[in-house]
From TrEMBL:
Residues 451-562 form the AMP-binding enzyme C-terminal domain. This is Acyl-CoA synthetase. It comes from Amycolatopsis rifamycinica. Gene3D superfamilies: 3.30.300.30, N-terminal domain of ligase-like (3.40.50.12780). PANTHER family: DISCO-INTERACTING PROTEIN 2, DISCO-INTERACTING PROTEIN 2 DIP2 -RELATED. GO terms for cellular component: plasma membrane. It comes from the Bacteria.
Length: 569
């Protein structure tokens, strides 16, 4: 794909982009933060490109670092996070986007990541500094992005496109967190790929995001894409979205040409939690697109979302299913400007590795096609490419693919250095560990190789089993069910752990009856006899930092007996 077909970015590094827009459009708004903690109406705080550049330079001058040093960004969501991240990059260091130690439930992951990247300095805020110092428990240079004290005279070193810009730590759904090494060139290539794939007009677009800036999709959507293209970025805190999801859609409606991205659960959350009276005030006819990615896409959820907000002007073609992963910066494929395509595949054929459309079976949502990169469906055992209609591992080749995992040479070679057997280009290719199929020119995601359940030689995709289990009762929380395999006598056995909204009030006979209903549903739909069914209170099914079901962690808890005694069959 020729680069002249891509939208123009402001420079060949993130720092060069900031300099370009600060000079070309100094008084234009670069960043607006809607602060719902300070004001329920969302007090707006805006920085122009000149103001943003001045703040970044001041914070960069306060970082006592050398090129290649890591700087951990431990700021709360907001303008200071943007300043801290860009200050680390501007100072010539490698930014490590993380989060405030006060984020509930993630202290263990934060400690593991800090141990892995070994930062030379930390950037946070004056208010968060005491908690950061207490968490670190060691002598480390700490800079407050909102109150920097310059220590380095003179200009910072000039970055080159192939220099490492930041480490994006994976969410750890199938392994411990690993830092993906991303260069300036990787990131800017992915911005142009995504914008071209989505067909966005950079001259008329505004990004709107509540996604955490430490997450790959949140960082690229809310910070890097606006920086590269000179767009206005409108941010809010994830907690503000959880408290009142209508705030996100209100912000989108307030900015003509606004586009955003969110995982599937956010679409369900909005459709189920936003009241009719609030929907009536929304103006969504001016939205350009909302990308749906980061977790399996549920077609029923899309239907509910489209129906719920049709009167507000939202149209199905505004929803853009996508597939991506941190190892490829974030975006790999995106759907066209049309209503999401949903295809029903024969369940038995899919279990044997063939996607055959049928009247009844498994419904999958098409995730579009790549732009500016190559995607191959490959037999993971032979490294041979598979024809359309065959389920295989998704391999990716392009300028957006990262350089490897931080200081993990063996894992890097295995994941980033794959070679096709007889294919062109031979390599290197990124092995995603995801299963997919190409049908009618679009990519469909089937699941994770490591999560695949194999019983009596047949493949079962866990998200498919989970959806069936969740349909057994309205009180089972959608998207809060985990299905996984454990060792059986002769073959793998399957366990389901499901969160139940009213578990505290569920009498034992009712619990047994519900477990039996789940068993019947799964047996009828998949031909699977479940070994165990466990109903648990809300919040007991573990998730990754990006909100995905952590099936491996759930399996570990089950084997350790953390869920107590399973229900009798």
């Amino acid at each position: 794909m020729s680069q002249e077909n891509f939208p123009a970015v402001g420079g060949d590094t993130l720092t060069a982009c900031l300099r370009h827009w600060a000079a070309a459009t100094p008084d234009a708004p670069a960043l607006t933060f809607a602060d719902f903690a300070a004001d329920p109406a969302g007090r707006r705080r805006t920085l122009t490109w000149r103001q943003l550049a001045e703040r970044v330079d001041a914070a960069a001058a306060a970082l006592p670092v050398s090129p290649g040093d890591r700087v951990a960004v431990l700021c709360p969501q907001g303008p200071d996070y943007v300043v801290g991240f860009l200050a680390a990059v501007t100072a010539g260091a490698i930014a490590v986007p993380l989060f405030d130690p006060g984020l509930p439930g993630h202290a263990g992951r934060l400690a593991a990541v800090l141990a892995d990247c070994a930062p030379s300095a930390v950037v946070t805020t004056a208010a968060a500094r005491p908690a950061v110092e207490e968490f670190l428990g060691r002598d480390l240079a700490i800079v407050a992005a909102d109150r920097p004290e310059p220590v380095r005279p003179g200009p910072a070193p000039t970055a080159a496109p192939d220099d490492v810009a930041y480490l994006q730590y994976t969410s750890g759904s199938t392994r411990s967190p690993a830092g993906v090494v991303l260069t300036h060139a990787n990131v800017l290539a992915n911005v142009t790929q995504a914008v071209r794939g989505l067909g966005l007009d950079p001259a008329a677009a505004t990004t709107v995001s509540w996604l955490p800036l430490f997450h790959d999709m949140g960082l690229v959507l809310g910070l890097i894409t606006p920086l590269a293209l000179g767009l206005r970025s409108v941010l809010m805190d994830p907690l503000a979205f959880v408290e009142r999801p209508v705030r996100w859609l209100e912000l989108l409606g307030d900015h003509p040409g606004g586009w955003s991205a969110a995982p599937n659960f956010a679409f369900h959350y909005c459709a189920s939690r936003i009241r009719d009276v609030d929907r009536a005030r929304l103006r969504l006819g001016r939205v350009t697109a909302i990308v749906n990615g980061a977790e399996p896409i549920n077609p029923d959820v899309l239907d509910r979302f489209h129906t719920a907000f049709a009167a507000a002007g939202y149209r199905p073609e505004m929803t853009r299913p996508a597939y991506g992963l941190a190892e490829a910066t974030v975006f790999v494929t995106t759907g066209p400007a049309a209503a999401p395509r949903v295809t029903t595949f024969d369940r038995d054929a899919l279990a044997t590795g063939t996607a055959r459309p049928a009247g009844h079976g498994v419904q999958l949502v098409a995730c579009g096609a790549p732009a500016g990169q190559l995607v191959a469906l490959v037999d993971p055992e032979t490294a041979v490419t598979l024809p359309d209609g065959s389920v295989g591992e998704i391999w990716v080749h392009g300028p957006n693919v990262g350089d490897g995992y931080w200081r993990k040479p063996l894992e890097s070679t295995e994941t980033f250095g794959a070679r096709l057997a007889g294919g062109l280009p031979e390599g290197p290719w990124l092995r995603t560990g995801d299963l997919g199929v190409r049908h009618d020119g679009e990519l469909y995601i089937a699941g994770r190789i490591k999560d695949l359940i194999i019983v009596d030689g047949r493949n079962h995709y866990p998200q498919d089993v989970e959806a069936t289990a969740a349909s057994a009762d309205a009180a089972i929380r959608p998207g809060s069910v985990a299905a996984f395999a454990v060792a059986g006598t002769d073959t793998e056995a399957v366990v389901v752990v499901a969160e139940h909204r009213g578990h505290a009030d569920l009498a034992e006979p009712a619990e047994r009856a519900l477990a039996a209903a789940i068993r019947r549903r799964v047996s009828d739909a998949h031909g699977l006899a479940l070994r165990d069914v466990l109903l648990v209170p809300p919040g007991r099914v573990p998730r990754t930092s990006s909100g995905k079901i952590a099936r491996g962690a759930c399996r570990d808890r089950y084997l350790a007996g953390d869920y107590g005694k399973a229900l009798a069959r």
